[in-house]
Amino acid sequence: MLELRKLYKSYANGHPVLSGLSYRFRAGEFVAIMGESGVGKSTLLNLIAGLDHPDAGPGTPILVDGVAMASLDDDAATKLRRERMGFIFQAFHVLPHLSLLQNVALPLLLNGMPQQRAADMLAAVGLAGREHDYPQQLSGGEMQRVAIARALVHRPALVLADEPTGNLDPDTADAILRLLQREIKASGACAIMVTHSHAAAAMADRTLILTKEGLQETTSVNALAQ
Ligand SMILES: Nc1ncnc2c1ncn2[C@@H]1O[C@H](COP(=O)(O)OP(=O)(O)OP(=O)(O)O)[C@@H](O)[C@H]1O
Q: Of the N and C termini of the chain, which has fewer Cβ atoms inside 10 Å?
């Protein structure tokens, strides 16, 4: 589903953040990525999402369904992101001039899909009855739940989540992660979740730790939190 092949990323004036990272993510799995602050977790998600570019080099460092992201022009990359990906990023703000229902329906509209699932997803994140409210009427956690509903509504093949439960109380966080888990299993999608929360990581199928050496599998995080 997603393959990283010797992925390098340095920022201007900085030391390399990712140095030849390789990994293969499979469809149908929910993977948590943990690791020390500043090690490059958000950088990695941004690169996969196409929000930033890897260092230039001869290889094809990011492949989605076998297609090198770098080989796509802007239109093709946008289409791939719109159809195949769902983002739960703090930076992806809910649009203020659209109602909650319109916000969640947006990926369906853009992909020419029937829109009735938008109301179901709002209900699934605990916001039934709030369809015609506007984002400014929401708390931070409610806003996060709208972003999650919007990220999942079009059943993307790849869900990228950066601290999806960062501003939710433990019960709501648990419910949202169960929803994420259910959606992934039902659609056979792959989800990659960056988190510092051991409780969140315990909901994933696998936890990887990002270090300077790359992504390493661990079972202990999930075991510890259970
Ligand atoms: N736009 C940027 N320009 C320069 N340096 C950056 C930029 N974004 C991130 N960095 C640096 O890259 C490194 C990795 O940052 P990143 O945000 O990916 O870490 P992280 O593992 O997600 O950290 P945290 O757990 O604290 O969110 C850090 O040293 C950071 O200072």
A: C
Each residue's pLDDT tens digit, 102-112: 999 999 999 99
Per-position DSSP letters for 64-107, written without gaps between them: ETTEEGGGS-HHHHHHHHHHHEEEE-TTSPPPTTS-HHHHHHHH
Please tell me the residue having the least CA distance from ligand 1 atom 13: 38
- Average pLDDT for residues 120-144, to the nearest whole number? 92
Ligand 1 atom, smallest distance to 40 CA = 18
**Residues in contact with 70: Cβ distance below 8 Å, sequence separation at least 6, in sequence order:** 54, 60, 61, 62
d(CA 79, CA 76) in angstroms, rounded, equals 5
The CA radius of gyration of the chain, in Å to the nearest whole number, is 17
Query: 171-189 as b/e, with b when 16 or more CB fall inside 10 Å?
Result: ebbebbbebbeebbeebeb
Atom of ligand 1 nearest to the CA of 13: 4
pLDDT tens-place string over residues 41-56: 999 999 999 888 999 8
Instruction: Quote the ligand 1 centre to 97 CA distance (angstroms).
Output: 31
Question: What is 127-164 written as a DSSP string?
Answer: -TT-TT--GGGS-HHHHHHHHHHHHHTT--SEEEEEST
